[in-house]
Design brief:
globular; Rossmann fold; nine-stranded mixed sheet; 38% helix; 408 residues; alpha/beta
Length: 408
């Protein structure tokens, strides 16, 4: 893959290649786990390396399915989708044959997951501004009328990332879940549906409109889960549409986007410029300057949960604390002490999946458990605490030198 020299920091590609070789990562360097195998020595090598891993897992899934071992097949296909979505995503170039190939394999594997899952899944097309947004709709067995959670991926993941067939974070708790490829993501990306500074929240509004037409959906109990850039988009969507009654947001991108596009891995800006279809850096910077959450909290009257890494390099704790104070509705903030951006199964929760914990909170919120005036701020230690059940903190992480639970 050729990388166009469109940004000032593109001349740092050799540094990124070195970090890929040494850490096995292209972003989120705070974590020790490698995302790429040791033989990957530079960024251009990533797609085919991950594609090979995914193909083996897919082949095992096919063999298991042929043998009648549906649960094993489901597990293999899920692992394959995780690599296929990364393989296609690392290529930021329109009409790239390798990207189209890996994305097609991603969709094929998910179609197999739909056949193997122990609950119904539909792939749906949602009308939006003259185009269509694709989504995966996960239903509780029997499709009863029930609360529904809209799941927003981050900029580096697609709707197939949701591990619902494995973890049952939502359907196992009495809620349907619909994961979308918003503008710039996954299928929308290949359809050249570009992201702008404000069109993602309008796409989410179209999803809410669509949910009103489904008999399985309790239209008065629609929630939202947002991860990474999905956190930013979730805030903007909840501020725009009061039909979203609760939002659980993690891997923070609260505040402005200078940390994301100017101070972290240059790969973030390379990717987002591709997702937006903008090839002029100054034009992109003008758009990025509008991508803020400041002022939007006051517009949100619904319940909001923020799950924040104390040292998330993409969103300073100061910005998260300020936004928490701004929120107008019921609110909780769980600060994961000495932690960073990726909160998939943090040790703070005893390594339980974060979406399962957040699923509990969303269920409670959609059942009306959190009333006006509810405010709870928790500092969760990496080890030794009670996860989200830890007592509220005696201050704010951005200002207290020795933050600890309140004394009772």
């Amino acid at each position: 893959m050729r990388i166009r020299h469109e940004r000032k920091r593109d001349n740092q590609q050799w540094i990124l290649d070195y970090l890929v070789q040494k850490t096995g990562r292209a972003i989120n360097f705070e974590y020790e786990e490698r995302e790429f195998p040791p033989y990957v020595r530079n960024y251009a090598q990533i797609p085919r390396a991950l594609g090979k891993i995914a193909a083996q897992r897919e082949a095992i899934g096919d063999a298991a399915l042929a043998a009648g071992h549906k649960r094993t097949a489901l597990q293999a296909y899920h692992l394959a989708t995780q690599q296929y979505h990364r393989a296609q995503h690392t290529i930021f170039e329109d009409d790239n044959k390798l990207k189209i190939h890996y994305h097609g394999k991603l969709l094929r594997c998910f179609e197999r997951i739909m056949k193997c899952a122990d609950y119904p899944i539909e792939r749906v097309e949602i009308p939006w501004e003259g185009r269509e947004i694709q989504a995966n709709f996960h239903f509780i067995p029997g499709r009863p009328r029930a609360p529904t959670v809209i799941c927003l991926p981050g900029m580096d993941i697609t709707k197939e990332w949701l591990a619902e067939p494995m973890d049952r974070a939502f359907t196992g708790r009495g809620m349907h879940a619909i994961a979308i490829d918003g503008p710039g993501q996954g299928t929308s990306n290949l359809r050249k549906i570009r992201i702008t500074d404000d069109n993602y929240e309008r796409a989410v509004k179209a999803v809410v409109d669509y949910l009103q037409t489904r008999e399985e959906v309790d239209a008065g109990r629609i929630g939202l889960l947002g991860t990474s850039m999905g956190c930013h988009w979730g805030i903007r969507a909840a501020a725009l549409d009061s039909r979203i009654k609760a939002a659980a947001l993690t891997a923070s991108t609260i505040g402005d986007k200078i940390p994301l596009f100017e101070q972290s891995s240059p790969r973030f800006k390379q990717m987002f410029m591709y997702m937006s279809g903008i090839h002029d850096e100054e034009a992109f910077d003008r758009m990025a300057a509008k991508m803020t959450t400041t002022g939007y909290g006051a517009r949100i009257k619904s319940a909001v949960l923020l799950v924040i890494g104390e040292y998330d390099p993409l969103s300073p704790i100061e910005a998260a604390d300020e936004f928490f104070e701004e929120l107008a509705g019921p609110k909780e903030m769980w600060v994961l002490g000495d932690y960073y951006h990726m909160n998939i199964a943090p040790p703070h929760f005893g390594s339980l999946p974060a979406y399962s914990i957040m699923g509990d909170w969303l269920k409670d919120a959609l059942e009306g458990r959190y009333r006006a005036g509810h405010s709870r701020y928790v500092y969760v230690p990496e080890r030794g605490g009670l996860g989200p059940y830890t007592a509220p903190a005696n201050g704010r992480a951005s200002t207290e030198p020795d933050i600890a639970p309140e004394r009772t």
